[in-house]
Amino acid sequence: MLTSSRLVAFLQSAVVLLLFLLAGCGMPEPATGSIIVGLTSELRVPTDIQELHVVMRVNGAVVLDETRGTGAQQALSFPAELPFRGLNDGDRVEVELQAFGGGALRVLLISRTAATEVVGGQTLLFRVRLEVECAPAAGKAVTCDAPLTCITGVCREAFVDPYSLELYDASWSQVSNDICKPVGGGDPIVIVGKGQSDYLPMEDFEVAQVEAGPQGGHHIWVAVRMKNLRQSGSITSVSGYVPELDITLSPFNVIFTFDPDEGGYCKLYGLRYQLDGDGNEIETLLGHTLEVKVTVTESKDGAVGVGERTVKLSDTIL
Q: CA 275 to CA 101: how far, in whole Å?
């Protein structure tokens, strides 16, 4: 039979053993996660962008504040990675980017913010692109108030749901996620159509309605379907030739982002192609044949797609 002193010693030993076992079977440490910001741009370094100011934050606290590019210790090139590593599940990460050009004038070209949250146990790729659509047009920059930021030329929410991000792969920059230019998609295809508010198909020798513009000129509406060319940063050029009069019309060039369309195509519409910009009398052109050519040229890779359509200009003006 145990004496009282031995009973106390036994109970003490049992408690110590129990605590040891509980410690060994305790809850594991929560898994950490990482976010790798994959930074790209169709703007050229140093031709377009000379400096990039980078600020990285975790839960609002600055973890990196540096300038890359001309005159800085850190070189600037695209693609680039901005890593947030070993963070807790649910931590909010944010990157704030300011791209400068103009040489000695140091003109602010683009301000871009991107934010998301860490998912424990995963390393996610957060693609961020500095887009030409967000650069100043006609001397006016695109400005957005927080929590919005400029994406494809308009103000959108800067925060992205982490569960919409892809898993990180070191070869991410070599794999295209461009919806208009999938890997192995083949040669560029460009189809010329019509439409002010959407793409509509058009046949050769179909009548193209001539309309009076708001500033006195006259135009037709041109739309485009394409595939295997980049969605953003491509130069779309519309040109025209009137063979019966041997008149070449001035080209119309834009850099617009294409919208996704059916069948793996992307579309661009509402291209106002002016017919009398060179001083040609519109009455002279009415009723004649117009050969319309649309050329889409990638500013980054140099790939080119060409589409042509022969139309008959209307006899009347709307």
A: 35
Q: How far apart are CA 173 and CA 129, in angstroms?
A: 12
**Which residues on adjacent β-strands are paired with residue 173?**
none
Q: For residues 4 and 2, what is the distance between their CA atoms, to the nearest angstrom?
A: 6
What is the per-residue pLDDT across 76-134, written as a single tens digit (0 to 9) for each? 988 899 999 999 999 999 999 999 988 888 899 999 999 999 999 999 999 998 988 88
Q: Which residues, including other chains, have CB under 8 Å from residue 93's CB and lie 6 or more apart?
A: 35, 56, 57, 58, 84, 87, 115, 116, 117, 118
Element (H, E) at 17: helix 4-24
Q: Domains of the chain, with CATH numbers? A: 33-174 (2.60.40.10), 189-317 (2.60.40.2550)
- Specify the amino acid at residue 176: S
The DSSP bridge partners found for residue 253 are 237
Return the amino acid letter for 299: S
Q: How far apart are CA 309 and CA 205, in angstroms?
A: 8
The alpha-carbon radius of gyration of the chain (Å, integer) is: 29
Is the peptide bond prior to 28 cis by the omega test (within 30 degrees of 0)? no
C-alpha closest to that of 206 among 266, 295, 269, 292 = 292
- In 3D space, the residue among 27, 58, 35, 28 whose CA is nearest the CA of residue 119 turns out to be 35
Rounded to the nearest integer, the mean pLDDT of the chain is 88
